[in-house]
């Protein structure tokens, strides 16, 4: 893959990949999984992983349904906004027609597994779940979703206790999430500080993920249109 990619052109060239029910196309896979997701994709499944996820809406708005402190919650991410989802929080991206969003995840360790869950109605009682090692979410979710639609649980709306784990592979996160914010507004508000320090962390020390705004100078002109994502290396992932 080329080092520099025209995102708008890439999205147009791959628009046929943004098909329901997942609408997901992977752009890059090495340490970071960089993907774009289109719409519409009305989903009832909730994804769970051990790493954090960075969302940025390129075109249009989206709604990220999550389970926060044992309750369902909607997080609306508008065009141009950024949102960092903490690890181990069940989430279900709801995307609309003619929208495109960027999602960045870290590469999974070989010992890590992801979960996909369906809940009973508007409750947080688990109806159906599958746990798997994730390599390409866009391709791996489809057969699990199809399995759910063919299941007795889907037809009856009742879980099968024998198919549910008595304990999840890792404890779910009970933290409260941040509010989405405008990326361009953040750059404008911190332009002076970025110029002085050469770079500035967007999320501080509250996350494993580090997203930085950088200052690039050329002939005394300051360019702040480039943003770089740096992920703290997890044990077992080479630099």
Automatic annotation (TrEMBL):
One cellular component (GO) term of this entry: cytoplasm
Annotated region described as Domain B, given as residue ranges: 191-239
Pathway: Cofactor biosynthesis; NAD(+) biosynthesis; quinolinate from L-kynurenine: step 3/3
Reactions mediated catalytically: 3-hydroxyanthranilate + O2 = (2Z,4Z)-2-amino-3-carboxymuconate 6-semialdehyde
Swiss-Prot/TrEMBL keywords: Cytoplasm, Dioxygenase, Iron, Metal-binding, Oxidoreductase, Pyridine nucleotide biosynthesis
The keyword Iron is annotated on this UniProt entry: yes
Signal peptide annotation: none
Annotated compartments: Cytoplasm
Record: residues binding Fe cation: 47, 53, 91
Cofactors demanded by this protein: Fe(2+)
Renumbered residue ranges of the record's region Domain A (catalytic): 1-191
EC number: 1.13.11.6
Positions contributing to O2 binding: 43
Cited InterPro entries: 3hydroanth_dOase (IPR010329), RmlC-like_jellyroll (IPR014710), RmlC_Cupin_sf (IPR011051)
One Gene Ontology term from the biological process aspect of the record: anthranilate metabolic process
Entry binding sites for substrate: 53, 95, 105
UniProt GO molecular function: 3-hydroxyanthranilate 3,4-dioxygenase activity; ferrous iron binding
Function field: Catalyzes the oxidative ring opening of 3-hydroxyanthranilate to 2-amino-3-carboxymuconate semialdehyde, which spontaneously cyclizes to quinolinate.
HAMAP family reported for this sequence: 3_HAO (MF_00825)
Quaternary structure annotation from Swiss-Prot or TrEMBL: Monomer.
NCBIfam families reported for this sequence: anthran_nbaC (TIGR03037)
Family of this protein: Belongs to the 3-HAO family.
Protein name: 3-hydroxyanthranilate 3,4-dioxygenase
This protein's encoding gene: HAAO
């Amino acid at each position: 893959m080329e080092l520099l990619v025209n995102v708008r052109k890439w999205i147009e060239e791959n628009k046929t990949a943004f098909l329901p029910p997942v609408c997901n196309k992977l752009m890059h896979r090495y340490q970071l999984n960089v993907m774009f997701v289109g719409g519409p994709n009305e989903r009832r499944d909730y994804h769970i992983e051990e790493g954090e996820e960075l969302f940025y809406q390129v075109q249009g708005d989206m709604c990220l349904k999550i389970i926060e402190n044992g309750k369902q919650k909607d997080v609306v991410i508008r065009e141009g906004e950024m949102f960092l989802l903490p690890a181990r929080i069940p989430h279900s991206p709801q995307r609309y027609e003619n929208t495109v969003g960027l999602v960045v995840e870290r590469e999974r360790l070989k010992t890590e597994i992801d979960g996909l869950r369906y809940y009973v109605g508007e409750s947080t009682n688990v109806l159906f779940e599958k746990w798997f090692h994730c390599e390409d979410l866009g391709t791996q979710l489809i057969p699990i979703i199809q399995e759910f639609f063919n299941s007795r649980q889907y037809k009856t709306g009742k879980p099968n206790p024998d198919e549910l784990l008595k304990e999840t592979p890792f404890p779910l996160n009970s933290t409260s999430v941040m509010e989405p914010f405008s990326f361009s507004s953040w750059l404008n508000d911190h332009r002076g500080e970025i110029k002085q320090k050469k770079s500035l962390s967007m999320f501080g020390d509250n996350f494993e993920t580090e997203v930085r705004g950088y200052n690039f100078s050329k002939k005394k002109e300051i360019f702040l249109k480039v943003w770089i994502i740096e992920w703290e290396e997890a044990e077992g992932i080479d630099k």
